[in-house]
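Researcher: Here's a chain I'd like modeled. Treat it as a single chain, no partners, no ligands.
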Amino acid sequence: MTMTRPQAIRAVEEFLLANQQGLGQIDPDLELLHSRVLDSLQFMNLIFLIEELTETPVQFEKIEMRNFTSLRHIAQHFFGELPDAA
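Model: Modeled as a single isolated chain. Structure tokens:
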């Protein structure tokens, strides 16, 4: 089953929220690293999640931190090819 873009974004948001106390949602433009919503240990797990959601390996030599600064950047870089609806 192909994941839609909104489903993939929501899955990433849920992953990030799993370790955050008192945070109910994440603003799409929130700086994930600077706000400590994403740390170095979660970063690797996030990459694995993105691979699972897109069914495509993320090439580690092509990882650029700017693509992980916010939910919006993650969606634009990794989920741009996913359909908006099923």
